[in-house]
Design goal:
alpha+beta; 5-stranded mixed sheet; about 25% helix; about 10% strand; globular; transferase
Length: about 210
């Protein structure tokens, strides 16, 4: 069974920090809640784990497996659900036979979180008063392949918005090549480096199927 919270539970952010970079999308969303207006009244934080969440990570060993989700049906057409499962830490590799029981635990946690999403959906049929942008469904962002596969394997329904998948790339800033110098990246003829502009953002938005605002 998953816990449904109206605030970020103490100890959850440090726990997610221990699982970077895979946990980054959910972690960043939870960090944004610290700012004014960063968490709507309709938003919920959902947590399923094989051990209670400890406010002090250093005092107790962290959970072996857990799933965290940030849900907000009041976000209109923007992403409504961000989700992370420790199943993603396997880096897409096949889990050995001796770890199949751990896989099952992680997958059941994912499904417990989805059941909590359904519960919130029943409690907020109108998305907090403004109507639901996706009635009977939920727009999920940055969904990892391992988590998606677990949902489908357990009977969940996941439909892509387009006929292709979006890929998520994580890289270290210090490893990005310099724009000048011997280690600079080679650009195609006629291309130059320059700062991103609002017009560039408009072009990117126009070329995707995801509704976004500049």
């Amino acid at each position: 069974m998953a816990a449904i919270c109206t605030t970020v539970p103490e100890g959850l952010v440090p726990l997610l920090e221990m699982h970077l970079p895979n946990s980054l999308p959910v972690l960043r969303r939870l960090q944004f809640t610290r700012f004014k207006g960063g968490m709507r009244p309709t938003a919920r934080v959902i947590f399923a784990s094989d051990a209670p969440l400890s406010p002090c990570i250093a005092a107790e060993p962290p959970s072996r497996h857990f799933t965290v989700a940030y849900l907000d049906f009041g976000s209109d057409k923007e992403t409504q659900l961000f989700m992370y499962s420790t199943l993603e830490d396997e880096d897409g590799a096949a889990i050995p036979c001796e770890k199949q029981k751990e896989r099952e635990v992680a997958e059941l946690q994912i499904m417990a979180v989805l059941e909590a999403v359904r519960q919130v959906s029943r409690e907020q049929p109108d998305g907090g008063g403004g109507g639901r942008a996706y009635p009977g469904a939920c727009l999920v962002g940055t969904l990892a392949t391992a988590t998606r596969a677990a949902m489908v394997r357990r009977g969940g329904t996941v439909r892509p918005r387009a006929s292709y998948e979006y890929e998520k790339w994580l890289f270290r800033v210090e490893e990005v090549p310099d724009e000048v110098g011997p280690d600079s990246a080679q650009l195609p003829e006629g291309a130059t480096w320059g700062p991103a502009t609002e017009r560039d953002c408009e072009v990117v938005i126009a070329r995707t199927d995801i509704p976004r605002q500049v």
